[in-house]
Amino acid sequence: MSDISYLEAIEVSKVFGRKSRSKIAVDGVSLSVKAGDSIGIVGESGSGKSTMARMLVGLLSPNKGLIAFNGEDVTQLRGKHKSDFRKDVQMVFQDPYASLNPRMKIFDQLAEGPRLYQLYDGELRLKDAIEELFMSVGMSVEHLNRYPREFSGGQRQRICIARALAVQPRILICDEPVSSLDVSIQAQILNLLKDKVSELNLTLIFVAHDLAVVKYLCSSMAVMERGKIVEHGDSNSIFGNPIHGYTKSLLKAIPTPNPIAERERLSLAKVQ
Amino acid sequence: MLSSRPILEINNLSIDFRTKDGAERKVLENFNLRLYEGQRIAVVGESGSGKTVMASSILRLLPEAHSSGEILFKGENLMVATSRRVSEIRGAEIGMTFQDPLSSLNPIMTIGDQVSEVLRIRGVSKKEASDRTVVLLQELGIEDAPNRLNSYPYEFSGGMRQRVLLAMSVIASPSILIADEPTTALDVRVQAQVMATINQFTSKRNLATIFISHDLSVVAGFADYVVVMYAGRVVEEGPVDEIFYRPAHPYTRGLLDSIPSIDQSSEKRLNSIPGVTPEPGHRSSGCVFRDRCDSAQETCSAKAPELLTTGEKHLVRCHFPLLPLSTSRNMG
Q1: Do B270 and A261 touch (CB under 8 A)?
Q2: What's the pTM value of the predicted model, to 2 decimals?
Q3: B199 vs A184: CB contact, 8 Å cut-off?
Q4: What percentage of chain A exceeds 90 in pLDDT?
C-alpha cells in the first residue's frame, strides 16, 4: 500500500439552496483515503454523509475545496485521467429500486460500463466475464435476460454491486446499501461486500447510519455531525473508547438483541 | 399482572387477497393471539411475514381482504361487528400508530387540530379537547406544547411527528395500542427516545400493546412476549427471554445471528440465512422455511409442522426444533 492518498477531500464544503435559504450540508471537511483502506462514514440524517459520498464519486462538486484523485483535482482531469477516475471510482446506492434502469435488461446494464471502457476484446469475452461476475454475486446466469422489476430488493442490490464491479473499479463507494433490506438479506449483502472487497483488493468507502454495520466492514471510520467530521480514527478504538460526545451518544443509542441489557437501558432512559 | 381473561383474542385468523385473475394469495394463515391487560406483545418478522396485515385487520383496515376466523375484543367479535361499531372502537378502545408519520398526518391541518379531533368527534368541547391535547403532548415529550398546537406537520422532526401520531392514537384512552413499526424511519438516537416515551407511557397507563417490528433489537427491552412470523405463519412465540436466549426455531436463530453487533469482532462472519422469503402464491407445501433451512430433511417437505410446546409458554413450529418439544401437545 502506498502512502499517497488515492482519493482525497481537501477542505470541501457543499451548500444547497440560495442565499438566505441556503443550507450547509458539508462544512470544510477533509478526508484522505489510501489504497486498501476501508473507511466508514457514519452519522444521522442531515449529517452530510451522503453529500460527502456524492462529492467523492464526482456526482456533486464542492462549492469550496477540492476532491483529488491520485493527487489531481478531479475537476481538472481530462482525457484518459478523467476516464480512469470515472471507471476506478464506482458507487452502490441506497435504493436498489431507483438505481437500476427499469427498461434495460440486466445484462445490458452490466455490460454498459465495460463496453464504454472497452475492457474486453469482443462481445464473447464480455459475455463470459459478465456471466462469471454475475454468478459470483450469487445470481444465476439466466437472470441476465430479465428486467429489474422481476427481482427482490436484495437481488437488485446484488445486481447493483455487480454493475459497480463490472468495470473493475479500485474504489467502491456504498451509500447505505443495506438500510432498505430485511435483516436476513442485509447479512447476505454485507458478507458479499466483505468477500468482494478482500477478493478484489478494493478500497471501500461505506456510508451508513448503523454503526454495527460499519464496524463489520470498515477498519477506520469518520463520524459526521451537521456537516463536520467530529471524530475520525481506527474503528476498534472508536468503539472501544469514543472521545466525542456525539459518538458516545450514537453508540449508547444502538439497541442490541439482549433483553436484560435493553430493559435496563429503557428503564434508565429519560423521556425528553 | 395478567388477568385471567384476555382483552383481545385472535382465533384462527386467515387472510387472503385475490389477484386480478382471481387467484388466491394467502398472506396470513391460522393466526392465534391472546393479549392480556397491560401485556406487551411484539410481533416480529421480515417483509412478507404478514405482521402488518395481521395488525391492520384487527381494526378492519383491509376492506379488500378476504378473511376468516375470530377477533374477540373483550368478548365481542370484531369480524362480524357493524362498521359503525368498528368505527367507535377505533381510537376509543384500540388505538393504532403507523410506520410513516409524515404520510399518516394531514399536511394542511395543525397538530393541535389533528390530535384534538379524535376527542371532538366524540363530543368533547373544543376547550377541553385542546387542554387534554396539551397535557398529553407534554407527557409524550413535546416541549412547549401549548405553542406547538398551531404548528403543521412539516415543522416537526421525524421523532416529534411520531410522538404526535402516538398522541392521536392514545388520546381517547384506548385499552389497546397497536404500534406498527413506529421507530423504523427514525435515526438511532431519536429511536431510543421514542422507545423510551412509548415504554414510559404504556407502563404508566398499563396499556396493552401490540408492537410490530422487523427489528428484534428494538423490541428486546420493551416486550414481555414475542411472536416471530415468517411467510404468513407464526413460527415461534414465547416470553421475550426465551425467544432471545433460547430460540427454538432455526429462523429465529438465523435472524438473531444476522444482526451485526458492535461487540462482535469484525473477523467473524455474519451467519446470514440463505435465499429469500417466498412470495404469497409461491409458498411450498410442508414447512414454509425449509428452502432456507440448514436442518431441513424429507419430513419438512412432506408435511407442514404444527405449533407445539417446547417450554413454559414457548411454542415452535418446526419438525427439528433447536430445543426438545414437550411431550404434551397443544395448539393447532
Answers
A1: no
A2: 0.90
A3: no
A4: 82
